[in-house]
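Run Heparinase II/III family protein through structure prediction, thanks.
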Amino acid sequence: MTAIPTPRQAGLGRMVREIRAEADRARSVPAPELTFTLWRRFADTGERQGYERVYFERRRRLAALVLAAHLDGRPDPALDDLLWSVCDERTWVLPAHEPRDRPPDTFVDLFAAETGHALAEAAALLDGLADPRVLARVRDEVDRRVLRPLHADPAPMWWESARHNWPAVCAGAAGLAALALGSPCLPALLPRLRAAMEAFLSGAGRDGACLEGPDYWSYGFGYFTYFAEALREHTGEDLLDDPHVREMAAYPARIDLGDGARPAFADAHGEGVYPLGLLCRLSGRLGVPLPVRTGEPSFHDDPCYRWAHLSRTLWWSEDIQEAGPEPYSYLPDAAIVVARSGGTAFAAKGGHNDEPHNHLDLGHFVLRGHGRALLDDLGAPEYTRDYFREGRYQVPHASAEWHSVPLIDGAGQLPGPGRRAGVAAAAAGDGALTFALDLTAAYDAPALDRLVRTFRWRAGRLELEDAFALSTGDALVEELFVSRVRPSVAPGRVSWGPLALAVPPGWRAQAEERDVRGHRGEHETIHRVRLTARIPSGAHRFVFTVE
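Sure, done. The structure for Heparinase II/III family protein is below.
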């Protein structure tokens, strides 16, 4: 790190207060231990939360104590002890990422890389504010656990050629650590890091969409940006000076639904905030539009308390003008449309069923009105071992049965790269949007010759048309509509608060619910309306209105 950044405190008062409060808590309450009992739980049961809660609590304390010392310029014995304790951890790798081909402390996973970056920059920032023996050990451990495995071992790690967030985070954080420490291995390491970044960029189409969802945009593209800016400062090389990168930077504004909401496609969340420092830097460097942000930044915006997000929010946040999103967005490679008008919003997706963090959701859609999601995407569930193995599509959040898509003679969508939605139409103007998808390839239903789903949207009104060509004369079709709002079913009508659906003649409506666990292990109840009919070939229309 060539210069010690100065925190920008204008507009960040809430965050600075929270940092100091968290640092006070870390000094007065002992840090929890990462025990063997917690470590073995993933291997024994597939459960991740127990170990990860303690792990991220320790990272929360680390970030708070380092930032407080940086802000206040005072040594802190509690910080010395915590830095030493993190160096004592058996591994910085999470149990869910434990490698089979090498010891854990010679593998660089997402969180080992993040921890190495946090400690490396702490060592640079705290020179003169922490015990030099502690800082010497910090530098040694970052080199041993993060830099040396990437520098000394010519065998690539599996993620180096992946086309999702892993190469951006792992290579980006490792590169940031090397830059912060002024590591002598940096020149030899840079070609490997650049190649990993190229793999990450290749995972986004020309439209720049993040197929893993908005949260993973913050994660992967965030670390790409943080590394790119540190590299530019160090060498003058500018990884952001690229048209494809500019398209990726524009993704949050294009996917924005307003009111701090976005569609929770893939493993995402429908509401949340992007790191403000990241947005400000991308706006200033690339001139991309920003999603409208609600509220001041908080130390608690990221539940994993990633140093990169927190520090850059302090260092990079500025007062910038939020123009707000355009009425329509179309991301052709991802086959996603978004429309916003009159306090209502709509989004729908095509794509294929082998996307990173995939759900069986071709033709799925969300509707918002009156400041909340009325028809929803469940987003990310609690991560477990089975969710990333063969049990993924038995989890409601990823299954076809808990997305707003049809079942045909009981058959839902199937996974695989060939299970793809073809875009038949995409047009917007004069306050209206039309989006049509050929969903035939998503199904393996003997009766189905063709299925085209067409959305016609204007503010407050959505017409959904499913046109079936059936080889057997008729088929049993179940149209599913998913929400976190409890529906009310009456003759000829279903409503979710202010959203109403006119039930066509011949269709029977039934409300169902299920208790599930959210991404952080919280319990919630989700709702589904099932419209059932035996239908002939032809177009069947469903009209939703926000009242």
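The longest helix spans residues 49-72.
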